[in-house]
Amino acid sequence: MIPAVGSPESRSDPGGSDSQPPPLDIEPPGCAVLVVGCGNLLRGDDGVGPVLVRHLWERGVPTGARLVDGGTAGMDVAFQMRGAERVVIIDASATGAAPGTMYRVPGEELEDLPPLQGLHTHSFRWDHAIAFARWALGEACPTDITVFLIEAAGVELGADLSEPVQAAMEQVIDLVERDYLAALRPQTGTDLTVEFTADGYVRLEAALAAGRFPSDAVAAVVRDDDLWLIPLRGPRSGGLLLKQRNPAGDRATLVRDVLADRIPAGVRVRHSGTMNTKRCGFPWVGASGPGL
């Protein structure tokens, strides 16, 4: 006999014992570094925070980091901070300074400004979020919070980022990478090894690829018989894609055309003491042939 809907039998599992659905965990996971970009993407320089987060995403997100587009929802920003060890917030400012002026402000200098009295959701901003998080999250609120502010030139609807704000954004990206994300990226050993295959591929070990080319997109250029692999922000920037070639995460890309079919097949080792460490890339130098 089929039990009636709502009867005790209908609320039991097929085995005859009552079951309860598992509790849902809707809290954001803790992380070593949380980067939040705040602002309105539709209003010119006010969108610098979310645009910056997108650039960081294209570079690759290391394990232990979390990137969040905070938009204009300040209360969401407060709850996103739960359990993070370090927090970075980026937003536009309007202080009257020259456009593109960049400020780096410790979070404790902002946690009591402005006051929370009389707030409602439509007026809740990131600067309220720090004070609110201290109150709402208690011990789960991070103590290491840094705010980067970039002075806006204009916030017209539909406008792009202005040139001074774009330049300042690049500076902030470099600072966030250096001070917060670099330590989370895989570190390579003293000797950096690549392999050139006879069919024209260059293969990189997983740690080298993740540490130097986190977005998996590169430009390959021959300069003075050196092959330069230059990291790009992401596949949308064009260039070559470092494809995963095995479960370990090693990467490979086809450079035969760049080397004009003169392939220096074999394994090449580059010592870090002689490696160019600029962000734009590094050469692999050898005794003969293009690129080596």
UniProtKB/TrEMBL annotation:
Superkingdom as given in the UniProt entry: Bacteria
Pfam families: HycI
Any one GO molecular-function label of the UniProt entry: peptidase activity
SUPFAM superfamilies in UniProt: HybD-like (SSF53163)
Matches recorded under InterPro entries: Pept_HybD-like_dom_sf, Peptidase_A31
Listed Gene3D superfamilies: HybD-like (3.40.50.1450)
GO biological process, one term: proteolysis
UniProtKB keywords: Aspartyl protease, Hydrolase, Protease
Region described as Disordered: 1-28
Keyword Glycoprotein set for record: no
Protein family membership: Belongs to the peptidase A31 family.
Protein name in the entry: Hydrogenase maturation protease
Organism: Candidatus Mycolicibacterium alkanivorans
